[in-house]
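User: I'm putting together notes for a lab meeting next week and I want to include a structural view of one of the chains we've been expressing. I don't have a solved structure, so I'd like a prediction I can at least talk through. The sequence is below, exactly as it appears in our construct file.
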Amino acid sequence: MYRSVVLSILFLFVRSVPLLAQETHELQGRVLNSSDNPLAKVQILDQATGLLLTETGTGGEFQLSFPDSVERVSLVFLAEGYQSKVMLLRPSSQIYRIILFEAQRSIEGVTVSRRRLLPISGYAPLTSRFTTLDILMTPRALGDILGGLMEDPDAQSSATDGRLSLQGGAPQESQVYIDGLRLPNPYSISSKNSSVRSILSPSECKEINLLSGGYSASMGQALSGVIQIFSRDTKDVKPGCFVSLSSIGRSFTWGLGAPSSATKLEFSASYTDLSLYDRIMPSAYP
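Assistant: Thanks for the context. Below is the predicted structure for the 286-residue chain, given as structure tokens.
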């Protein structure tokens, strides 16, 4: 008899422990915007642990369960396009109403900068880097690499044929190198006192570096500037035909070779007509 009473008491005690542990408090509410429209997919996180607790439904509603020992909880509400909000809430039967305001996005200023390389000698005051986009987006260049370099303060054009001059030197005192190989004549053939353009296509170049001044020690005081041009990698050359049309002409490119091949061949042809630009504004070349 005594043993059965003890077992009954233990059985009731064991059953009462889970019941006490299962007692929780609910925290529920709705998330709305400033126009009282419900916001779905709003992430609700615990600020103390950073864990994602739940997300709001299609009607902006949410419901959380906390143990009886939790009296207050700090929640973070996150939604794309809205300001985040942190609130200290108490689990109860009250239905909370959370308002999120739209995030204000504005541009206060724009800073345009250009990277500069270290000079290759102690006397080189100017070292500038250009990309293909810089050449194509320069109105004065008209798609010409050497014409785009004339935008630099230390670069000028010759008064007779429009060739590039650096640091006030003669055009022949500026040398052009493509992947380390010197290009003897980078200009198209022209007669005296007529404008010329370079024979280089900006679409085939990856990077253009302009180095001016300070080559007396290694060049015998006969060089005023160096233009370093790096061509595109073989993996960037895609097989197939490409035709582009623009207001200054048209171009055609034909690439040969497998996409994974290390050796590829590309033919490019372009036609430039500046008559439309000459009608709108005078040509930049004398």
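A couple of points you could mention at the meeting. DSSP finds five helices and 17 strands in the chain. The first strand starts at residue 24 and ends at 33.

User: Perfect, that's what I needed.
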